[in-house]
Amino acid sequence: MTTTVVVGGSFAGMTAAIEIKRKGKEQHKVILIDKSPLFLFIPSLIWVPFGRRDIKDISFRKEDVLTKKGVDFIHAEALSVDTTTQLVVTDKGEYKYDHLVVATGPKVNFDVAPGVAEHSHYVGTPNGAMKLRLALEEFKKNPGSIVIGATQNAGCMGAAYEFLFNVEKWLREQNIRKKVDLYWVTPEDYLGHFGIDGMPMGETMLKMFMKMFNIHYRTSVGIKEVTADSVVLSTGEVLKSSLTQLMPPFIGVDFVRNSPSLFSTPNGYIPVEDSYQHKQIKNVWAAGIAVQVDLPFTCEKIPFGAPKTGYPSDETGKIVAENIVRVANGRTDLKKKAWGKIAGLCIMDAGKKEVLIFSNHLFKPRTFAIMIPNVIYDFNKVLLEKYFLWKSKNGYAWMP
Ligand SMILES: Cc1cc2nc3c(=O)[nH]c(=O)nc-3n(C[C@H](O)[C@H](O)[C@H](O)COP(=O)(O)OP(=O)(O)OC[C@H]3O[C@@H](n4cnc5c(N)ncnc54)[C@H](O)[C@@H]3O)c2cc1C
After folding, report:
1. In Å, how far are 254, 279, 309, 357 from 362, measured between CA atoms?
2. What is the pLDDT of residue 131?
3. What is the pLDDT of residues 350-397, one digit of tens each?
4. Which of 195, 258, 329, 355 could pair with 348 in a Cys bridge, judged by C-beta atoms 3.0 to 4.6 Å apart?
């Protein structure tokens, strides 16, 4: 019997845990530790501030599906791991493993600049999205300027773009658009870089959207400071802002950073081979955002990162599961796929419109890459949400 402990049970961890059990059957015991009892479809959080979704619509209790699939769920926070004794320490006890999967996602670095934690909103958590809902209600009573964007070192620019276009649409629906100066600020060298060095026609399309929706924008800027009513850019420019939403950088979680024997990178990610096996510790694996991904480009002025989106998170969970089962069966031929070589599949919501993004590889060089705008309605994004929630609720982790 091989025991695998998976820390983190979301896109990457839940997929890995269920797949190890499906492929390894009775030969494998799988324990999944997560501090949250809920699986949350994070991409739909951008709709929560506008009341288009409530948290209950996009989440479910993960224990039921895990138990049905033969995975033991432990609702606990993992505090550290000792990779020599192969023990994970949690706030509810210790767990011994033969293989460890780190799928803990990110910690959001709100300390990136003064005032970001205090004065800027963040749509990426249920609490943050609900606070934004209240803030928008208040804003409606006394409209001013709005600044939306990403800070230096951020990598998840796509979600911030989505929020921007949803705010623009909401302002029109509230009949206050003309009263509001809307700003987009980004460390990207150009609009639509997205941390993947862009897509064909991406910059042109985004410039067209900015012009069409009268959104002022600044590229290649960092955030010096956020105050209660302004955003100070790295260029010294001060933008008035009654409501600010910024995407800060992601770093590795405390569990990783508090575990020196994991030999994580300085920003708290796990260094892995293309098989997602730890570069030095053969029975440690990583999947999803926890993986260290080297940037395939250089930033011209302001540093920013690459996005680690849902599709590669799910894919790396599957690769890890396959490889753990292979190793347990004595095989040495591991499945390999470098992060940048995973296909790019993404839908960017543009405020009840959408842009479909497909490429054969996430990173360049690519032989196929296309962005398809759909100005009629964001039904593909809605379909994706319904499909992913259905698939996850039923534990069909093998599906794409
Ligand atoms: C606002 C927003 C919108 C997005 N939109 C899209 C989109 O449209 N398309 C797309 O492809 N991607 C999108 N993404 C990215 C997508 O959400 C991530 O790729 C995905 O969530 C990564 O999955 P993960 O399993 O690696 O990490 P996460 O989903 O972050 O999960 C990590 C899990 O680990 C648990 N955990 C962490 N630390 C511990 C600990 N110490 N002990 C126990 N448990 C722990 C957490 O509770 C969590 O369940 C978006 C992200 C954000 C923030």
Report:
1. 28, 22, 10, 10
2. 98
3. 998 999 999 999 999 999 999 999 998 899 999 999 999 999 999 999
4. 355
Class of domain 2-108+250-339: alpha beta
Pocket, ligand 1, Cβ cutoff 6 A? 7-13, 33-36, 42-43, 45-46, 77-78, 103-106, 123-124, 156, 159, 253, 255, 288-289, 308-311, 313, 346
pLDDT the model gives residue 252: 98
Q: Assign 240 a pLDDT band (cuts: 50, 70, 90).
A: very high
Backbone angles phi, psi at 355, to 5 degrees: -125, 125
Average pLDDT over residues 296-306: 96
Pocket residue to mutate for ligand 1, from 5, 11, 63, most atoms within 8 A of Cβ: 11
CA of 400 to the centre of ligand 1 (A): 17
Ligand 1 atom with least separation from CA of 78: 42
* Residues found in the chain: 400
Closest residue (by CA) to atom 41 of ligand 1? Answer: 78
Q: What residue's CA is closest to ligand 1, atom 35?
A: 8
What is the residue extent of each domain of the chain?
A: 2-108+250-339
